[in-house]
UniProtKB/TrEMBL annotation:
Annotated ABC transmembrane type-1 domain residues: 99-311
Protein name per the record: ABC transporter permease
Entry membrane topology: Multi-pass membrane protein
Gene Ontology cellular-component terms listed: plasma membrane
Annotated localization: Cell inner membrane; Cell membrane
GO biological-process terms attached to the record: transmembrane transport
Alphabetical keyword list: Cell inner membrane, Cell membrane, Membrane, Transmembrane, Transmembrane helix, Transport
The family this protein is said to belong to: Belongs to the binding-protein-dependent transport system permease family. OppBC subfamily.
Pfam family, one: BPD_transp_1_N
Length: 318
């Protein structure tokens, strides 16, 4: 990498850190404005005002909002993520129990949707203008337009209620057999893949078509190279940058969609814990979960920017 590319990557990284700092302020102040009193909810409605005031002082809720923010931010930077208001356990200890389940769901979805999207996108590009291409384009656009909660609801009605193939609730267990494992993850993964595959397939198709219109690929086809070989050996390597960027951007969407999916299917992941913490006004858990999702989202966006810079021939030669 030359200096200009390193400068661009450093600038993107700095912008990501600044964005995460702004997100931290927005998250903290918005969660502080949630209706209800956390101390009152912990003690119950029968608690005396003196007891509530004492607990508020113990939790630091009686301090000015700005002072609480900087105290919380300083603790986050030092690895202290606070203590749960509801369970009185360290937030990291609570979240650590749910993180593997959420990342397992994200990993399974990624392993399925990325190869499938590449296959659909390449097939549509190679058959550009044909009936198959039109069908793939229309179907992917339709899947992008349909929200996840509607896909999840329809999937539950068909596969769980009508056909009884799988359960409407998804509970994974390390001791389950392969069939039970597939049934547990079938509906959540299917729902997430619908939107992700459609997005990545459309972007992959556009990137491959852009390469197919290049003079070097037309020359390869004139020399007798088969269309499939030309796409896989010549077009695909040169389209790695845009395709990798499309995959990173699409996967960043995964962290937003997983909140809806975990809630609908009662999946024991980080997103369902976030929803429970919001209902219980467990502010430390809410703040840390949102920051973790935001950090993962910004990390994938940064990866997309880095891949775009790394595979841009104009910037490589600058």
């Amino acid at each position: 990498m030359n200096r200009y590319m390193l400068f661009l990557i450093a600038r993107r990284t700095g912008a990501g850190i600044l964005t995460l700092l702004i997100v931290s302020a927005v998250v903290f102040f918005i969660t502080s404005l949630l209706p209800g009193d956390a101390a009152q909810m912990i003690l119950g409605q029968n608690a005396t005002p003196e007891t509530v005031a004492a607990l508020r002082a113990q939790l630091g809720l009686d301090q000015p909002l700005l002072l609480r923010y900087f105290s919380w931010l300083g603790g986050m930077l030092q690895g202290d993520f606070g203590t749960s208001f509801a369970s009185h356990l360290p937030v990291m200890q609570l979240v650590a129990q749910r993180i593997p389940a959420t990342f397992e769901l994200a990993a399974i979805t990624t392993l399925i949707c990325v190869p499938l999207a590449l296959a659909i996108g390449i097939t549509a590009a190679m058959t550009r203008g044909s009936l198959l291409d039109r069908a793939l384009v229309v179907s992917t656009m339709a899947m992008v337009a349909v929200p996840e909660f509607l896909v999840a609801t329809v999937a539950v009605l068909i596969f769980a209620v009508k056909l009884h193939w799988v359960s409407a609730m998804s509970f994974g267990s390390p001791n389950m057999d392969l069939v039970s494992y597939l049934k547990a993850y079938a509906l959540p993964v299917l729902t997430l893949c619908c939107v992700l595959v459609a997005q990545m397939a459309r972007m992959t198709r556009a990137a491959i078509i852009n390469q197919l219109d290049s003079p070097y690929l037309e020359m390869a086809l004139l020399k007798g190279v088969s269309p499939l070989r030309a796409v896989l050996r010549h077009a695909l390597p040169n389209a790695v940058g845009p395709i990798a960027n499309a995959i990173s951007l699409s996967l960043s969407y995964l962290f937003g969609g997983v909140i809806i999916i975990e809630t609908i299917f009662s999946y024991p992941g980080l997103a369902s814990q976030l929803v429970d913490a919001v209902s219980n006004r467990d502010l430390p858990v809410v703040q840390f979960c949102v920051m973790l999702f935001a950090g993962c989202y910004l990390l994938l966006l940064l990866l997309a920017d880095v891949l775009t810079i790394a595979f841009n021939p104009k910037w490589r030669s600058a």
